[in-house]
Fold this sequence. Notes:
This protein is an alpha/beta fold. Helix content is 41%, strand content 13%. The radius of gyration is 21 Å and the shape is globular.
Amino acid sequence: MGIINPSLRLTRRERFLRVFMYEEVDHVPDVEFGYWSETLRRWHREGLPEWVTDDYRADQYFGFEAWYWYKVPYYIPFRGFERVVLREDERTRVVRDELGVVKVEFKEGVGESIPTYLEYPVKDWDTWESYKERFDLDNISYPANWEQLKEEWERRDYPLGIDAGGFFGWARDLMGLRNLSRAILTEPELVRDMFEFRTRMILKAIEKPAKEVKLDYAHFWEDMCWNGGPLISPKHFKELMVPCYRRITEFLRAHGVRLFIVDSDGNIDLLVPLWLEGGVNCFFPCEVKAGSDPVRLREKYGREALFMGGIDKYALIEGPKAIDRELERVKPLVEEGGYIPHVDHRVPADVPYSHYLYYLKRKRELIGLASSS
Length: 373
């Protein structure tokens, strides 16, 4: 059936790389994206062992072939801000964190929520110039047992990658979305300087690993889209970001890397061709309801575009019939290759554990694995 050839016996690394080269595999990699903590707590009441409390333990328990835990580590020295509690009440505290961001946090045990952000450290040229000085790009460090790790990596049977940063998401965390959006329009040279600095930072950090280790992939994080499309116009993306991506992907490609993965939620449709132009060729988690259906995107952008994810999380809420329809929908893409199916974001707490187990059983049948609960 398509690229699946059960007679093969491949390592996790071979399987992961071959599926993105449209080559035969014994089965498509069995990967999932993760879970909200509320989901795991619900599932504890429905049969999931209590020790499964996070994504890493879940990957172990379910036996997934997670790729994202395996990256060459590096550390870029940063002179952080002192974490200070500015004010607090019974439920919340207002803090300035190590990155200089002022935010409202819920106290432990009170509730879970994304923090409310009040103030960001980069506001203009002066604050940006000051912030840049907190980084020490001349003293990027790597693990003390680097030579030992290199020997271990030579013998690995899993895919090994490297974090290649990101631009919009990084700048948004320093400026806030509203301020960054305004700066793109009113002070594009400031944003260009931030992205240029970020590019130099990443190139310095990945130079040693790229030259000394055979890397399998590079991973970018952006989260720069919503249901209506990108949070930056394609015009500004092309002008400000494509050249930065290209410098990083060309450097890594010259050192044997062929897979460049970008993580962005929302509707990525308008940015896919621009990411491809910048050398980024693999997209996840492909949120279906947001407009990032990998089946449609493959039809639109061809085999150059590779995908992970794309299984509508809402189908898991509905139950078996919806799950079957969803898996049947992506079946042609699975058979063609260049695609690893998994839930299109973290599994929400609305999903019963029994539905998830049914989904795993049916997905594993689709990707060439024996039935499993």
